[in-house]
Design goal:
This protein is an alpha/beta fold and 410 residues long. The protein has a domain of 145 residues: 3-Layer(aba) Sandwich (D-Maltodextrin-Binding Protein, domain 2), CATH 3.40.190. Strands 1, 2, 3, 4, 5, 6, 7, 8, 9, 10 and 11 form an eleven-stranded mixed beta sheet that branches.
Length: 410
């Protein structure tokens, strides 16, 4: 979705009708329903009803900021994204921020899937209402959609001196040049994950490195893949020899056929967001296309690897929604977490790719064993096995999401 002036004329109802019309005989596999996907593709490029800025991006509405009198920040994010004291259930860095700033952060792990979350708040956003969140964490493409539609406010970098600590690779993404609206929260890889003991007893191997292994009949009904289209489909495209950063519609079709086959024959048990973690822990599935940090946090009984044909590199980003009531408080939270020492403390727990320059050096005094961890501070050899999914036009987004939803039985 690279050009905000390319308006997608289909309404949400229109898209929903088309997607519903393609519902197949396959069982419902995905946690996030068709409605979420429909509204996301319908909104892409449609505009948020606000005046466009000079760059062509709609300007987000703003509200009277209550930060000075209401020392609160409401933060919606994904599970497993912040350090936690397992004994007390408290979050050490968040507690330290509140003590330092006087700002109470209501930290809610209610983002399980980009489309699913967008479906929850879309009506309020379209009607120009405060959604009750001051920070939302969204993946690159969805963050871009919010920016294009005027659902995100520009950050006041003058009050955020640490915001300059973004690592070079993430400083100016296509969806937000110069990081005017967003800061990276965590990055990571879409890759292969498994329960090591169960994999050993089922297949006689201790690790996975290819989709040939993932699709081995011995794993039939024990495989989960992600409901984030780009993670799952990027890995399938690469497996088939296509370039996920620049592929054709025919190559896309071939990858959809592969996904459809693996669902129809029962190899893939479920298509889901973060819920795959519970299935891994319960033993319902033993191998997944999942997210790096999530699986690392499960402990030493589980393993991860980038497929030999490549895995997806993505970033989840913090932004301030339009009409958020506590923008300055939200910016104070973001600035705090861009302190390299604080960022290193978070990285030591979540073990996702840390987006903060200086955190690797700070890690020397926090956990020296993690300084050279390739999943937190990836070097060239790790990055060489990863790709960033191709940016889609609104038309491609609509068609490819429809294809994906049809393949998974929605």
């Amino acid at each position: 979705m690279t050009d905000t002036r390319h308006v997608l004329v289909a309404s949400a109802a229109d898209v929903s009708d088309r997607l519903m019309g393609s519902m197949s005989r396959r069982r419902l596999l995905q946690v996030a329903g068709v409605g979420g996907a429909a509204v996301a593709v319908a909104a892409c490029g449609a505009g948020g009803g606000d005046t466009a800025s000079a760059s062509g991006t709609p300007s987000a509405a703003s509200a009277a900021d209550q930060s000075a009198t209401d020392k609160v920040a409401n933060w919606s994010t994904w599970p497993s994204y912040l350090d936690i004291d397992e004994a007390s259930g408290q979050r050490p860095t968040l507690e330290a921020f509140t003590k330092q700033s006087g700002i109470t952060v209501n930290y809610t792990e209610d983002v399980n899937d980009n489309n699913e979350f967008f479906a929850k708040v879309r009506t309020q956003l379209e009607q120009g209402q405060d959604i009750g969140r001051d920070i939302v964490v969204l993946t690159d493409w969805m963050a871009g959609l919010w920016i294009q539609n005027g659902y995100a406010q520009k950050l006041d970098k003058a009050t955020m001196p640490n915001s300059g600590n973004v690592i070079p690779k993430l400083q100016s993404p296509g969806f937000d040049p110069g990081r005017e609206y967003t800061l990276p929260w965590q990055s990571g890889f879409g890759l292969l994950g498994w329960n090591t003991a169960q994999l050993k007893s089922t297949m006689g191997i201790s690790s996975l490195n290819s989709l040939d292994q993932l699709f081995d009949p011995k794993l039939k009904g024990r495989v989960s893949v992600l409901s984030e289209m780009r993670d799952t489909m990027g890995i399938l495209l690469a497996y088939q020899g296509a370039d996920p950063t620049n592929f054709t519609s025919d190559q896309w079709g071939n990858a959809i056929e592969l996904l459809t086959k693996q669902i129809d024959n029962g190899q893939i048990r479920q298509v889901t967001g973060n819920d795959y973690l519970a299935a891994l822990k319960s033993g319902d599935v033993l191998a997944v296309i999942g997210w790096s940090g999530d699986i690392i946090q499960l402990g030493d009984a589980y393993g991860i690897a980038l497929p030999e044909t490549g895995g997806n590199l993505w970033t989840d980003n913090m932004l301030v929604p339009a009409l958020a009531a506590h923008k300055k408080n939200a910016e104070a939270v973001m600035n705090y977490y861009y302190d390299p020492v604080v960022a290193a403390k978070v990285a030591a727990y979540v073990q996702y790719v840390c987006p903060v320059e200086g955190a690797q050096d700070a890690m020397k005094s926090i956990d020296p064993a993690l300084v050279d961890n390739p999943w937190i501070f990836p070097q060239a050899d790790t990055l060489a096995k990863a790709f960033i999914f191709m940016q889609l036009t609104p038309e491609q987004q609509l068609q490819y999401e429809k294809d994906f939803q049809t393949a998974i039985g929605n």
